Amino acid sequence: MFVLERTYEISELVRHNMHTHSVFSKCAKKEMTLEAMIRAAERSGIKTLAVTDHSDLGDGIDTAENFCEYKRRLQGIETSVRVLIGAELSAYGVGLCGEPYEIDKMLDFASYSHVHYHLDFWEQPEDRSPRGYAEHELRVLNALFETDRADNIAHPFSPLKMKFFNDEQKAATLSAITDNELGDILEKGERAECSWELHTPTVFTFPDFAYRFFHIGKEAGVHFCVGTDAHELSAVAPEGLAERLEKVLLRL
Predict the structure, then answer these.
(1) Could you give the CA distance from residue 129 to residue 91 in angstroms, rounded to a whole number?
(2) Whose CA is closest to 153, among 162, 144, 161?
(3) Whole-prediction pTM
(4) What is the dihedral sign for C-alpha 81, 196, 85, 115?
(5) Nearest to 52 by CA among 17, 99, 80
(6) Helix or strand run (H / E) with residue 227
(7) What is the pLDDT of residue 28?
(8) pLDDT digits (tens, 9 = 90+) for 174-210
């Protein structure tokens, strides 16, 4: 289900941060309480804040319990920000999802990762080459889009967590995806009413792919959103983010 209107205006997209982590994620700083995140969003003019804490097999996190707790806390917080309590869920293999379907549908925003290959439980392709990983990612996404689980794809195709690859090999996983393959999967996600994240760490690390991804997606008419993957308050609404994204995505 789409939760934001379609737009390709970067200045508008950055007013909705759809990938943030609170203290319910072990990787987030202690300052990332729900209210502190909301106040940081208010100060920066953020319209929508999606809290997407990790939901991984064996991490000891109860996604449903955390959702209910944050919905309860929200009742005591007055804010003009639209706050969505979601999760960063796992499509950890072809047809493999980390949470029961009912949990996905409970959330305000089900954002799926398909590239956390550094995790022990993640399915690895038989072909461990950059092209092998690219093909595997496409198969995982095709299977996910056969369901109605996902509202968004978090850091799509990002090789940042492929710690077993050097920088050249990481970049090769992105160039291994052809324009036709990219267009086809973007269109399939759109038909499944699933948005695609412009993940700022990936955009700035792999600008050539980010430019290609954005413009093929725009041509296909997909829904984009921006996610900073915030683990600290300064990343909820980084200063100058729109201008930095425009330099990469629009080559201004």
Answers:
(1) 20
(2) 144
(3) 0.95
(4) negative
(5) 17
(6) strand 224-227
(7) 80
(8) 999 999 999 999 999 999 999 999 999 999 999 999 9
